[in-house]
Amino acid sequence: MRLHTIAAIPADGIGKEVIPAGLAVLEALAARQGDFALHVTEFPWGSDYYRANGRMMPEDGLDTLKPFDAIFFGAVGDKDLPDDVTLWGLRLKICQGFDQYANIRPTRVLPGLTSPLRSVSPGDIDWVIVRENSEGEYAGHGGRAHRGHPEEIATETSIFTRVGVTRIMRTAFRIAQRRPRKLLTVVTKSNAQRHGMVFWDEMAAEVAREFPDVTWEKELVDAMAARMVRTPASIDTVVATNLHADILSDLAGAVAGSLGVAPTANLDPERRHPSMFEPIHGSAFDIAGKGVANPVATFWTAAMMLDHLGETAAAAALMTAVEQVCADGVMTADVGGTADTATVTAAVIAAIEGKNQRS
Ligand code: NAD
Ligand code: MN
Fold this sequence. Notes:
Layout: E1 2-11, H1 15-33, E2 36-42, H2 47-53, H3 61-65, E3 70-75, H4 83-97, E4 102-108, E5 126-132, E6 136-145, E7 153-159, H5 162-178, E8 183-188, H6 196-208, E9 215-220, H7 221-230, E10 237-240, H8 242-255, E11 263-267, E12 275-279, H9 296-308, H10 312-327, H11 341-358
Parallel strand pairs: 1-2, 1-3, 3-12, 5-10, 8-9, 8-10
Antiparallel strand pairs: 4-5, 4-11, 6-7, 11-12
């Protein structure tokens, strides 16, 4: 029996609803597959923890997480706390502390869902967006001067390093290489951002020589946003900076039907540290506490986590179950259904159990 240790951090808002749903589904899967087990430890970190302790996680939180095989994360964000406090205090602390430099964001229109793009038919959208997750615009460098004065100035400095850019390029080329079309689009803004982005283009060309079987092209980020809407079928694998890919992947989530179905993995591809798996969406103040959050993003995220842990059969079984439930129309309101979180979760568990009875 293979055993994997999981640190679960639901954190805030609908994170507290979708992570328990994800854990229930994972438990059902492990029980049905019978050849692996998950040992889950839950950590009550986040905004409530902040109110009680003045920090989003304990000072030695990273040491606590380090021995785990993977981290299963909900979302941060609280109406009464500044977003930069909640984000930097927990999610970014883990991403940066564990050097999870590759953020992987697959996008597909699941069966039963409709893209808001009129021209999209099933199969037209099958993308993987690779987001640089350790430097760039979110490196945290910058400053403020002359606060409150007319000459007030604020800077936000993007940092790009040879190590940082080449390693994300390599990760993206490797992912593209494993996909049928072997096409990588390198997104920059090198017409306007003449330093960091020209550097990205140069590093792409350098790394591309190691992957002669991958076709690669350059696209400016604004043109890429338009292309995602106008000719989505022309896109396969995409690599972009922390900020550019953050924005493009929310667009990708929307184009695929809803942010409520979009998953992500924060990987340390070298596996020096645990990687972290989370739905792309945030804590969703508007629906938190109502039991109506779409758990599909979290289920897909759980499948990515299983893949990373080597449980590829379980990951595939989970996606089959999710697709079956979506195709059956058991969906939450954000994708046009009437089911709540618990109903979708129960349907996915039933599909997992049914599927295994047939096989
Ligand atoms: P959000 O992702 O929380 O919500 C955006 C919209 O999408 C809302 O209308 C919400 O109801 C809907 N939505 C999101 N997930 C859904 C789901 N699973 N099912 C159904 N509908 C869903 O983004 P926001 O409103 O910009 O931010 C709210 C808070 O979350 C902020 O504090 C923000 O900083 C934080 N945030 C955190 C993360 C993260 O933890 N990784 C990511 C994004 C935003
Ligand atoms: Mn985002």
